[in-house]
Amino acid sequence: MSEYERSRTIAAPPEVVFDRAGDVDNLDEWLPHDLHVHPGDLPAVTVHDDTGGQDSTGQDFRALLRTERDQLRMEWGTRDDGSYAGWLQVAGIGDAESEVTIHLSFFDEAHAPPGAAVDRALGDSLERLAGQVDRRGG
Question: Which H or E element spans position 21?
Answer without folding.
Answer: helix 14-21
